[in-house]
Amino acid sequence: MSRRFQNAADSQFSDNWDRLAQAIREIHRKNASILSFEELYRNAYNMVLHKNGDKLYNGVREVITQHLEEVAKDQVVPAFPVSGASSSQANSANGAGGANFLKVLKSVWEDHTTCMLMIRDILMYMDRVYAKSANVPLVYELGLELFRDTIVRSTIYPIQNHLLDVLLNQILLERENEIIDRSNIKASMDMLLELTDTSAKDSVYATDFEGRFLETSAEYYRVEGQMLVGECDAPEYMKKVEKRLNEEEQRVRHYLSQTTEPKIRSIVEEELISKHLKTVIEMENSGLIPMLRNEKMDDLGRMYKLFGRVIKGHEEMKTAISNYIRELGKDINETVSNSATTATAGESHTTGDRQTGTSVAIRWVQDVLDLKDKFDKVQNLALSNDKAFQTAFNEAFEFFINKNLKSPEFISLFIDDNLKKGLKGKTEEEVDNVLDKTITLFRFIGEKDVFERYYKQHLAKRLLLGRSVSDDAERGMIGKLKIECGYQFTTKLEGMFNDMRISTDTMTDFKDYLEKSALERPKLDLSVTVLTSTFWPMNLSASPRCNFPAEITKACDTFQRFYLARHSGRRLTWQSNMGSADIRATFNARKHDINVSTYQMVILLMFNDLPPSQSLSYETIKGESDIPEADLKRNLQSLACAKYKILVKEPKGKEIEPGDKFYFNSDFTCQLQRIKIQTVASKVETEGERKDTREKVEEARKHQTEAAIVRIMKDRKTMDHNLLIAEVTKQLQPRFVPNPAMIKKRIEALIEREYLERAPGDRRVYNYLA
């Protein structure tokens, strides 16, 4: 009985399987419409229900495998591209033949997946019951594995090699600007992505295709990079690199896997950018420097973006631009050196020499500002305001600006020029804009204390000679300096302004005093500016030698009595070298109002009672006026050798020498009613004056350094030598960069004066002595 039932069961399975196998073949033949899927499902259900799931599963495997072998033989292999020795045949393989092969493969794949979906529906019960319990792939997955092993990785036919070759050749053709059918390539890529490599636990796309694609791409771009570098200039090369990157990005978007995008991008960046960084930057007539020189903002922006993709790209750009700024700065500094060499070729320093020096100083600052504007423009328009580039630019500017030892003086002179009255063609707003830019240069100065000394001198002359654009502009500049350096930096500058304001009020009170008093009023209008000696940069404690005329002496005595009566305990010293006077002179042609310095007034008044033909010798003027010799020569030059010759000198010449004679020039003519006799104001210092300034700065630095040491030690009580040096340097850096040797000397001086002592156990440790 059992054998008969067994034979019946076998017979029933065989009948059901034959019908099912035939149905699968009909599906493969695209005749699914003639089948009853409900009946086929029931047959498969019964087979699994009667424990024949393994036979059913293996039978399905065999039918599908057999079908795929036939497909490989009858459809795929005949579609192989023609390959031969000739280049025309190879071209055919790469072009139309390859496209046809992919088209056939696409059709085969789509047919197979469609059939597998139908087969899966029929065998759904087997998937749910047998496949899961037996731990075997579901039917659809089985179909994919069979397609992978029988078609894509066929051991009988070289389908895999042809497929990969065709795909790579199609991509190559597209890179060479040929038109290809992307839909067929995408279908093949999708197929490879859907097929999995069980051992690698990854897609067949990743294991079979991607590696070869990246390898061939690297070689392709390696060769192209070498070729383009030889053929193109820098802008053209970068455009081609940009185009290649966009093309690869589009290629990924259209038919490659997204996982390939960073890999292919990295290859293009490595082969076309990283390996040719310096070559592109240094290309003659078209590299980075020519782009900067010609302000090619689009090309610079493209280079910034492309080079930013690779590790050392921006670093190479920063280095090249920084070196270029230093070179340009060196050229600007050399113009100063050349001018200085010309100016010092002779032994004397005339007014003309100083005027030339001033124009050199102003031109130097303007050149630096123009250079700064140029690279600010590059930073804004091409470099996306990259802070790393800005830092590199600032370091380059700081380097060459501090290479010019006169930069603090030059920047102060430039500010002085912009803040003077009579500045042509500039509104207050324009002047303020220039000063803002100048503050930027001020930040780069290492020796800010030297700048402060020069700025005080120039400000003092502007205030005393009334040459400022406006008080608002002056105070605005001091406000900018206060923001940069703090209150201490500008305390004395603000004190100078305060003196000027108080002096105005004092003169109002003096005039009221003269009107109310019974004293005889002076025959001249006296205006006095009282200066606090600690605020102003000049030595106000000593009174320069000068014999005033009696009327002026009387007026000064009247003011002095008035002032000292109001301010007991104070002392006034008259600074004859700093004043000015308005006098009326009568010439043969007409009268003129002449603005002169106090020294020039004293000299001219000596000619008042002389007959026109009578002269005064240099020695006579010197003896009667008692004006210091250097100042006397300078003022006689202004009166007898400059534009307006109020005096005539014998013998003629530009230099004032002992023995010279001077006549009043009664034949002097000028169309202007009011004349200003120019004196040397804010001009570039001579070497002797600069040496004197430097000595004063060094002396001031000693006191500042000692004050910093005491301040630190008072707070810390005990400190190691190196730590103290570092802390002092940090505190003084906003004003100047101290030399460690100088700090050490100041420490020794403080030890001698018993502010500090060396620790008994360690001579490199200091203790503070209260």
Written description of the protein model:
There is one protein chain. The chain is mainly alpha-helical and 770 residues long. Helices cover 66% and strands 5% of the residues. The strands form 4 sheets. A 3-stranded mixed beta sheet has the order 3-4-8. The radius of gyration is 48 Å and the shape is elongated. The termini are far apart. Residues 1-5, 84-93 and 343-353 have low confidence and may be disordered.
How do the strands line up in the largest sheet?
A: 3-4-8
Give a count of the beta strands, DSSP E runs of length 2 or more: 11
Cα shape: elongated
Sheet with most strands: 3 strands, mixed
Percent of residues in helices? 55-70%
Q: Extract low-pLDDT stretches.
A: 1-5, 84-93, 343-353
Strand content: 5-15%
Pfam family, one: Cullin_Nedd8
Domain Cullin family profile: 406-640
Protein name: Cullin-domain-containing protein
GO cellular component, one term: cullin-RING ubiquitin ligase complex
